[in-house]
Amino acid sequence: MRLAPLPVLSPHQYPQEPRTLVPVRPAMKQTLSELMRMSRICRMVFATCLGSFVLVIFYFQSLFNPAMQTNHFMVDGCCKKGSRNALQELYNPLQSDLSGAAALHQARRDQVVDACRIYSASSRKRRVLTPGDLKHLVVDEDHELIYCYVPKVACTNWKRVMMVLTGRGKYTDPMKIPSNEAHIPSNLKTLNQYSIPEINHRLKNYLKFIFVREPFERLVSAYRNKFTLKYNSSFHKRFGTRIIRRYRKNAAQDALVNGDDVKFKEFIEYLVDPATQKDGPLNEHWQTVYQLCHPCHIHYDMVGKYETLEEDSNYLLQLVGVGDFLHFPSYAKSTRTTDIMTAQFFSNISSQKQIQVYQLYKLDFLMFNYSIPSYLRLD
């Protein structure tokens, strides 16, 4: 027996139960409102807890990952160039808190200008600087600085500081940079690497600074470092053998070969010998500041001194705008060459040689306001 198919109903033909609206009582409405408010509070508490948890995670990661710590030398960090550069800050007449330092450095600039004026009036020599004369001038583009480094005047530490300033976050602590790395030429850009128009622009608009030292202290420091320390065998071979061959009578064969026991008296003879001048420019470690940095041709905005090294350095870093998180490294005063030590070295030098070596460094004495040492016999 076959059943007849059931008729197919459309959705609107389905039987529906009658709908009745249940009135919401006021108590129920209040309960629903409180439930919704509690739900909102729970969500807020949850979000706060989650955010705090994430912050805690980042905190502990930063403790164990130095790369996540604050780096003040990133280009996009706190040290981007502001409305004023260091040059404008130096000559800012409103430096009320730094007025004493500003006056000091103005006096030092004036001293250089006066000495150069006297020298140019008495000298017939006139020369124009070439890019080759600018290889000691280190450039910091980010902070618009030019530093002329003078060997034996804390130049290793200043090169370290310049590597921090120019490293764009690669370095943060100057003393963590090995000393030999600070002297690798490719780690710092020098002014002679620019075109003539670029050189002129930077000389005009960047703050130019230099650090100097009592000339004879610097000279004795160079001698002690390069000729009395065994590890400086390259200087012994290059200069020591030549000095001993020229100025030591009946020199032993090993001294002629190794050049590692040069006497200070022999070193002075080498410096004042006209034959040395014919060999070419003096080595940078005992070359005059006048010849290394050309202060009569380049106007240095700041002249720092080795005798006030930390104060002058940190004053400059304040002008740059990094003084709150970068300080100039302290140096070992116990090993430095002092004026008493210098006097002892010069005590065995004849009056004639003392006069000659003073004449060699006379401009450095005059430009940077160093008096003639009392131990010299210049009569």
Automatic annotation (TrEMBL):
Transmembrane segments: 41-60
Any one GO CC term of the record: Golgi membrane
The protein's Enzyme Commission number: 2.8.2.-
UniProt superkingdom: Eukaryota
Protein name: Carbohydrate sulfotransferase
Record flagged with keyword Glycoprotein: yes
InterPro entries: Carb_sulfotrans_8-10, Sulfotransferase
Originating species: Oryzias latipes (Japanese rice fish)
Membrane topology value: Single-pass type II membrane protein
Keyword match Repeat: no
GO process annotations (BP): carbohydrate biosynthetic process; proteoglycan biosynthetic process
